[in-house]
Amino acid sequence: MDPLAAPVPSVEDLVASAHVVSLPLTTRFRGITVREAVVFDGPMRATEFSPFVEYGDVEASTWLRAAIEFGWTEQPPIRRDSIRVNATVPSVPAHEVAGILARFPGCRTAKVKVAEPSQTREDDVARVRAVREALGPEGRIRVDANGGWNVDEAEHAVHDLAPFDLEYVEQPCANVEELVELRTRIRWMGVPIAADESVRKAEDPLAVARAEAADVLVVKAQPLGGIRRALRILERTGLPVVVSSALDTSVGLAMGARLAAAVPELEFDCGLGTAALLAADVTEDPLLPVDGAVPVRDVDLSPELLARYAADRDRTAWWLERIERCHRLLTD
Ligand SMILES: O=C(O)CCC(=O)C1=CC=C[C@@H](O)[C@@H]1C(=O)O
Ligand SMILES: [Mg+2]
């Protein structure tokens, strides 16, 4: 039994407090235009369960553990009450970049999606160039390939993108061995590597640090099983951290902000500004970036918005069954 695991409420309690929503996005992101999520009225605060629909139950049950911990238990002490965030730029054509950045007022850092399978390296270069032009020389730019390159492709891409002055390249290749190889090859270019999927989807989230495959860790509260587990992973690796969202509603973003607030040292801006990519939310007071930061606070659910964006009957039934299966995995 994991000493960090919060007691699991009954499935009846979970289902009774669940609201399944379907929120439109402003821009297509990781192939979706609608974000489905479950938010709960937890006894401590509103909380969220939103593993992507294609994830299996074992992976999704880790996200449920996080939801329960946040909604049903006290949280670790915080060290800051506001978190600087990056703008998140989906794999849009270069001419749409300025419009996206305008949704993230005051953000000095932008994370740019690259390596989209249907696009070319020239598309990536054009998008990153447009971001550099918009942010000016002081801006910080990081790119995220979501493991989309092999080592050679990644080396060429970093070579082409380095002139725009990259803060780091996130998950350039899919696995840890490739990251190690790439890290050796690009060391002379001075572009650090950040690991995301190699932490949040790995059976052993510490493997990437042990292999010295990355310079920075991207951590997300839900996929890592909650704030306490994420903090424990960070403690054990000692690497600098970027806390990021999973394209959550403002409720999940509040969980992420809470994690970012509890981290001992936070030198990088965090990927928690993504409420700006949602065209609708579950609260009247969303966790949108203001002056380049989001506040660390709980979020009040809006009954009116929950009703307006409620998922249809079939999707609601699908999510409630998923909760039941994940609950069984946590209690068996
Ligand atoms: O980090 C950010 O700026 C926002 C979050 C973000 O990019 C992601 C959220 C959810 C799923 C992922 O494909 C993606 C990521 O890979 O980091
Ligand atoms: Mg990522």
Structure description:
This protein has 12 helices and 12 strands. With 332 residues, the protein is α/β, with parallel strands linked by helices. The protein has 2 domains: 11-75 and 303-331, Enolase-like, domain 1; 82-295, Enolase-like C-terminal domain (TIM Barrel, Alpha-Beta Barrel), CATH 3.20.20. Strand 2 (32-41) and strand 3 form a beta hairpin. Helix 5 packs across helix 6. The ligand O=C(O)CCC(=O)C1=CC=C[C@@H](O)[C@@H]1C(=O)O binds at residues 30, 86, 88, 111, 144, 146, 196, 244-247, 271, 274. It comes from Labedella phragmitis. Belongs to the mandelate racemase/muconate lactonizing enzyme family. MenC type 1 subfamily. Mg(2+) binds at residues 144, 170, 196.
Summarize the structure.
Its EC number is 4.2.1.113. With about 325 residues, the chain is α/β, with parallel strands linked by helices. The protein has helices at about 10-15, 55-70, 95-100, 120-135, 150-160, 175-185, 195-200, 205-210, 225-235, 250-260, 305-310, 315-330; strands at about 20-30, 30-40, 45-50, 80-85, 85-90, 110-115, 140-145, 165-170, 195, 215-220, 240-245, 295.
